[in-house]
Amino acid sequence: MTRIPVEHPRYESLITRERIVEGVQIGITSKQGLIAQGRGETFDYLLGERTTTTAAYAERAAVALLLLAHNPIISVNGNVAALVPDQIVALSDVTGAPLEVNLFHRSDARMHKIIEHLSAYGASDVLGKKGDGSLDLKHDRAIVDEVGIYSADVVLVPLEDGDRCSALIAMGKNVITIDLNPLSRTSLSSTVSIIDNITRAIPNMVQFAIEMKHNKTEELESIVDLYNNDKVLSSAMYEMSETLKNMSIERGIEWI
Ligand code: PTJ
């Protein structure tokens, strides 16, 4: 890994890049995952590289859904495994939602390496290898475990590529997504759309889960009932336009 000095103004962003590159080098992240990360970075820049108030509101609602679920599951792909392996295992532990590896660029070798990688961070019984369930999709993300994603009532799908989210919604599930693009098919179709970088969203959710774990069922239900996903999407777009406006003004460019 290239040494990045902590004083570097782009430290967090550069370290994240190093993690994704390392993920490719050790065979857990796809090369396409690098491009996905680059796309995410652009939206994060527009968002001001911070968790907005409405993103935190969505993260709390997502945790409430996971804690209320009878059969929750957390889907993991190559980018998630490279960026937040420790925190995704922690979220699984605190919410009781198992992890299932589900890949767009699926191969036995990557499945195996990701499961090994998560196990090294303390995960046990990672699902995904069985592949005895099927979603209504024409690509390898259709391959799921019967006891996992297939039968889950609440699914957390970070860094999605779009159509799986719709397929899961069509099956009557509640779907939580983490995607920095508020206009992606994923964000537009999910139950709770978290418009935040996964590197901030998952640690935030771990903290919320620790705080909310002993809340009464009615308290969690009320968080979910009051949740408004359209507000989250429109607020993310507003925040992005405000960041652009403020940056323009700071740099002496007239905002018209
Ligand atoms: O590991 P695999 O084989 O399952 O492949 C995973 C990728 C991510 C390559 C695959 O799902 C893919 O191609 O995804 P897309 O279509 O590029 O979509 C990824 C979405 O996640 C985009 O809307 C990005 O803006 C967003 N994104 C990228 N990095 C982050 C992110 N959102 C939150 N945090 C990030 N770090």
Summarize the structure.
The protein has helices at residues 11-25, 31-47, 53-68, 78-83, 85-95, 108-120, 146-150, 163-170, 185-189, 198-212, 217-226, 229-250, and strands at 72-76, 99-101, 133-134, 143-144, 154-158, 174-178, 192-194.
Question: Can you walk me through this structure?
Answer:
With 256 residues, the chain is of the alpha/beta class. It has a single domain, classed as Phosphopantoate/pantothenate synthetase (Rossmann fold), CATH 3.40.50. Helix content is 56%, strand content 10%. The strands form two sheets. The protein has a five-stranded parallel beta sheet, with helices on both faces. A two-stranded antiparallel sheet has the order 3-4. The longest helix has 22 residues. The protein is globular. The N and C termini lie far apart (43 Å). The site of ligand PTJ has 24 residues, from helix 2, helix 4 and helix 10.
